[in-house]
Amino acid sequence: LASDPSSLQDFCVADAKNSVLVNGLVCKDPKLAEANDFFSSGLQLAGNTSNAVGSSVTPVNVAQIAGLNTLGISIARIDYAPWGINPPHTHPRASEILTVLEGSLKVGFVTSNPENRLITKVLEKGDVFVFPVGLVHFQQNVGYGNAVAIAALSSQNPGVITIAHAVFGSKPDISADILAKAFQVEKNTIYNFQSKF
Amino acid sequence: LASDPSSLQDFCVADAKNSVLVNGLVCKDPKLAEANDFFSSGLQLAGNTSNAVGSSVTPVNVAQIAGLNTLGISIARIDYAPWGINPPHTHPRASEILTVLEGSLKVGFVTSNPENRLITKVLEKGDVFVFPVGLVHFQQNVGYGNAVAIAALSSQNPGVITIAHAVFGSKPDISADILAKAFQVEKNTIYNFQSKF
Amino acid sequence: LASDPSSLQDFCVADAKNSVLVNGLVCKDPKLAEANDFFSSGLQLAGNTSNAVGSSVTPVNVAQIAGLNTLGISIARIDYAPWGINPPHTHPRASEILTVLEGSLKVGFVTSNPENRLITKVLEKGDVFVFPVGLVHFQQNVGYGNAVAIAALSSQNPGVITIAHAVFGSKPDISADILAKAFQVEKNTIYNFQSKF
Amino acid sequence: LASDPSSLQDFCVADAKNSVLVNGLVCKDPKLAEANDFFSSGLQLAGNTSNAVGSSVTPVNVAQIAGLNTLGISIARIDYAPWGINPPHTHPRASEILTVLEGSLKVGFVTSNPENRLITKVLEKGDVFVFPVGLVHFQQNVGYGNAVAIAALSSQNPGVITIAHAVFGSKPDISADILAKAFQVEKNTIYNFQSKF
Amino acid sequence: LASDPSSLQDFCVADAKNSVLVNGLVCKDPKLAEANDFFSSGLQLAGNTSNAVGSSVTPVNVAQIAGLNTLGISIARIDYAPWGINPPHTHPRASEILTVLEGSLKVGFVTSNPENRLITKVLEKGDVFVFPVGLVHFQQNVGYGNAVAIAALSSQNPGVITIAHAVFGSKPDISADILAKAFQVEKNTIYNFQSKF
Amino acid sequence: LASDPSSLQDFCVADAKNSVLVNGLVCKDPKLAEANDFFSSGLQLAGNTSNAVGSSVTPVNVAQIAGLNTLGISIARIDYAPWGINPPHTHPRASEILTVLEGSLKVGFVTSNPENRLITKVLEKGDVFVFPVGLVHFQQNVGYGNAVAIAALSSQNPGVITIAHAVFGSKPDISADILAKAFQVEKNTIYNFQSKF
């Protein structure tokens, strides 16, 4: 899927200070565009994986590089502590291609209804895997040390919907009776889940 | 979001018998196209809501009307028993606009990370609500009788990812250790969820 | 046809008060988006069909629901008095899928040059029919009572070109000598047509 | 409007002999592509304007140049006898930019409902005018001699819907009672119109 | 390739005075649109070919006709002195279809790596040729007199990258050591090339 | 720029054995899709930079991963020997975002006519830079050791046009008189350039 409109000029560097909001972002004067508008640094640094899931995502999208505006692409660095996971999530506006830089990752995605087929693979350093747009997918560090991957995504602003947070951690909460019926459990179980997020 | 490519001819009626598979579907000879290729019937009939969630979706997309191929739109009828729900799900390839034909529905959608804001509303007969592409959304019958809605979707084949089924009911299962960490519960709780789907 | 660009954020609720005009509409601050931005009411009410054609179209597009901006879809309710018609028209920016809620409708569309083939069908309650983007189409109530339909369209702003009004009722008029030659009739016949619109 | 999907390879020369039909056309082996696939001749020749409207359109689209497949553009030469017209029509899949090579043309287009505003201009040799996608437009030779124009269109297969032919000349006819109500005239007047096409 | 987003209204005439910059251009109030917004003149006039390459391009794109904004098309007139060339260049955002109005042109384009196949043809008056989006292409006047062509392009703002100017005439210069290695020549040869542009 | 059409199903794994050619590639039966269709390996291995330019590009696009078909993204590993360059080139169908994994790179791109502005930057490990679609760009290893980068591109098949090869190494050659005039040098200089490719 190509979720971004086409360019109508050489580039349209996002003007973050402009109060006018459009689909994507308005541009700064192209004469004022400079190399730093197309640049970011720091992706050599490991993210902090000391959290509940043992992983960290460092995005490099239009929020970090203004020059990505209208260009239909972005990347992210993902760090995984041993047994850390990038929990099941979707990107509503992008497909993803993931490259393992270090370590071993078990990855997978699930097809839509009615099959809900899980397609899964263990990746080693130098392996590449694809997650089609909008499908639920995840990664798990299955090696002995840290793991690192680079993900490229087909949108300047792919969006992330972490299933656990969207379903059990929304603000305000989705009614427990809805979730109890959806997951076919007691409401108390839902309350327990909701207390975590 | 407009998730379908543009038409390059008046229409491209899907040729379901052709073994060649493309993005979308190949077309039958336009000279052989007839009114029935653009037609389906039966949407006046209530779906069977005698199931765990108390709802039923009757789709009318390119699988039901071959003439929808390349046209970027489809619809569905949704029936809800009292307190029935259309459980949290996403459409990876379409936005949705829902019209209540009968009854009262509580509807909502959740924005992507990091806000995960729940935007919710109770709808009555004649009310219309929009679910943006790719976001988790749901409906619940909150009236005393049955409820009926028509949903229109911005793709010939929007796809449905029911969260409960994709996460806890995939074939094969997503590893319980991944889900236990993602939802921050014991593995036994995950096994219990997985046994339901 | 998918006539709208793709979304570059979860949603872009139209800011009708902003004086800056773009392809589509500029967005309000997403933090200020609320449920009512994705909502409209009143579609249970019949339109007033006491007019020359005996029909009424109640649109629900981006002008009624600001949240439809960038989402590529809209709907309309159409009411038909007995023998009322929705006269021949085109949507320059959308395909349409029509569902009959009540009554009987004769519907049809005409393919482009050189065939100009009329594809037509009589629909009953619960029947669904498709009108491909840009083609001339119409509906006629052929039952004994009122008829009601819901039309879904593949654009936030599909546009309507009613042939009679565009050709014989433009402001100012198209020169009668052009129309006389186009329709191969006397100029006086054209003047007569023009006097009606 | 850009009504064609993007290219996914250098070119995709249409293979007219292939029985598989898709949105657009399937490609021949790119190794067999040759200069003639991107070429046509004869546009220096005037079309035959000895017909009821006094004009002739010589198209150069994907039907004439197989190499236009997937490229989103086509052209046409239009010849006009004195007082000849290119009658009111729409292109369902393309905007048009017209250049006058010889003579004087009155041109115009009509906006969609509810304004139906006619925007019109007299053009001389070397003048250029734009007709937005899907809108009803026309040209009339208002000079003393023949006129010639080149039209460029934003689709490999823009389609043409001549209003008179689509409305009064479809095969089979649109019911006279529908057209009588649409144009607010007697059925006999409609029969008269239909007899011309 | 169709490099422009779709229209979301009848037209979006560019408002050149507005300081807000977007992908494409913001629109003026449609009520203020007038015929001159869709019009330009002067294309009957030959360009001045008294320059190093013996050719002249007169563009008619969104910079000349504000009404082309969002419509995905533009044109240009090209004049060639005897033996004049339109030097090798690419359009990053458009395919091109060229019609010879006067004279004889040798034209060609080169496919991408690894084939780099040159597809070439000599065109006479009335001949038409296609240059697929993004590929290097050129024309040369091979007749005895002047030559004239009309080029139509599938973007409101196709862009032009003249290879000689982009590679040897950028401001500032690309380092001579990079170009020397790229073209496998001495740095002095590169300095010589750079001195020309 | 998003140069690929949108997905109309969860995925459309390319069927390389099918003789039917389309824009992109036809799909294999989705029931037969398996993890290996979304996978490739070997990107941890350095490419062979013992060549005239001292660099090597290892692509991972739809030719290597069939599952990338219709998904609008691909990547490549680029290796650079000391002072090696990735010579000036364009991608006709993709924007690029480049991440330095090892070493120091001088990178740059040149805007289109008439400015031909060079925007350039020296990158270190962990730095990221963007090259907008269709623009001429390059990289040069300016460190003491080897350099490695990962490039992500916004198309399943971005295409590469190496300027030196397209202009001086096409098969057959572009006429020397055309190139001599384009680069404003003697034909003998052109013959010399052509002998290198």
Automatic annotation (TrEMBL), chains A, B, C, D, E, F:
Binding site for Mn(2+): 89, 91, 96, 137
SUPFAM superfamilies: RmlC-like cupins
Disulfide cross-links: 12-27
Main localization category: secreted
Gene3D superfamilies listed in its UniProt record: Jelly Rolls
Binding site for oxalate: 86, 91, 96
Compartment(s) where it occurs, according to its Swiss-Prot or TrEMBL record: Secreted, Extracellular space, Apoplast
Alphabetized InterPro entries for the sequence: Cupin_1, Germin, Germin_Mn-BS, RmlC-like_jellyroll, RmlC_Cupin_sf
Keywords: Apoplast, Disulfide bond, Glycoprotein, Manganese, Metal-binding, Secreted
Molecular function terms from GO: manganese ion binding
GO cellular component: apoplast
Domain Cupin type-1 residue range list: 41-191
Similarity field: Belongs to the germin family.
Protein name (database record): Germin-like protein
Source organism (scientific name): Prunus avium
